[in-house]
Each structure stands twice: as C-alpha cells, then as structure tokens.
Amino acid sequence: MNSAILKGNGELWETYPEMKKVKNNVKKYVADWIYKGKGRRDSIPVKYSLDFNNTLWNGDEELASDVEKFDGHYALDSRGIFKDLYNKDTELLHDVEDWIVVANGRNLVWVYVLKKDGTLWSRQEVSAEEKSNSFAKIVEQTDISMCRIQ
C-alpha cells in the first residue's frame, strides 16, 4: 500500500504505515505499477518524484535528468528525447512532441509517438523478458496542430 502527501513547499510525506517525511524539493509525485507480464503479481511498484531541478527519481534511484514530462515508464526531456525508463536497452527517439500508450484489451499494448516534424511512430510493447521492438514510422506527415495527444 502506498499513501503519500505532497505539500506545496515541495515536502513529500508518506502516511502509511507511519507519517514520515521522505523527500524535499519535489514538484510532482506519482505512485504506479510497471507491468512486466500478465497480472499484478508480475509487476514492479514505482514511486516517481520529479524535483524542482527536473530530475526524475524512483525512490532514491535517479532515472533521468532535464525531464519535462513523464508517464508510466516513459519520460520526455526538454530537448525532445523520449526515453523508456524501464527497458534501458531501448532506442532513444529524438525530436518528440508527445506520446500515448494504448491497450487494446487483448493484452496488446502499443506506444504511439508524435515527432515535431509531424511523423507518427509506433511500436508494440513486449514482456519484460523480451527484447523491445523498434519504433516504426506509420504516418509520414500529420498536421501537428490537429494531433495533440491528450
């Protein structure tokens, strides 16, 4: 179980099993699960905190610097570099505008990445034990103003 409070002054407090301050200088906090396979038993709990220096942490482990946005096991830095935080051997994509992760209900998960040049890229996610797929360009040119991922 995870229960936490992020105060306006950047203090992060855990409330369970006891109340204690665990970090300072935090501007965003997310507790989540990274699913390695099928079911919660095959998952890893994460406690992401983004500090005021834009460094992303999982507990005491530094994951990435210069982070502008993060979600699930992905992060985007201010230079437009898209990183997979969980599968470290995955290729980095450059000039990324935004991304979305979509599950189709049959245990298939796809990642769609919109680049700043209007191209759309995707890849199917794999289990933790498998080598990650490469991203493939699926749309040559989109109107970025019409394709903001929400």
Structure notes:
The chain is mainly β. Helices cover 0% and strands 48% of the residues. The chain contains no helices and 14 strands. The strands form four sheets. It has a four-stranded antiparallel beta sheet with strand order 4-5-6-7, with no helix packed on it. A four-stranded antiparallel beta sheet has the order 11-12-13-14, with no helix packed on it. A three-stranded antiparallel beta sheet has the order 1-2-3, with no helix packed on it. The protein is globular, with a radius of gyration of 17 Å. It starts with a strand and ends in an 11-residue tail after the last strand. Residues 146-150 have low confidence and may be disordered.
Layout of strands and helices, then pairs:
Blueprint: E1 4-6, E2 12-14, E3 20-23, E4 26-35, E5 43-51, E6 56-58, E7 61-64, E8 67-71, E9 74-77, E10 82-84, E11 96-103, E12 109-115, E13 120-124, E14 136-139
Antiparallel strand pairs: 1-2, 2-3, 4-5, 5-6, 6-7, 8-9, 9-10, 11-12, 12-13, 13-14
Largest sheet: 4 strands, antiparallel
Low-confidence stretches: 146-150
Shape: globular
Please tally the helical runs, counting DSSP H or I stretches of 4 or more residues: 0
Write down the Rg.
17 Å
Tell me which oligomeric state these chains represent: single chain
Largest sheet, spatial ordering of strands: 4-5-6-7
- H/E order of the elements? EEEEEEEEEEEEEE
Coarse structural class: mainly beta
Residues in helix, %: under 10%
**Number of DSSP strand runs:** 14
Overall pLDDT, averaged? 84
Distance between the termini: 29 Å
Strand content: over 45%
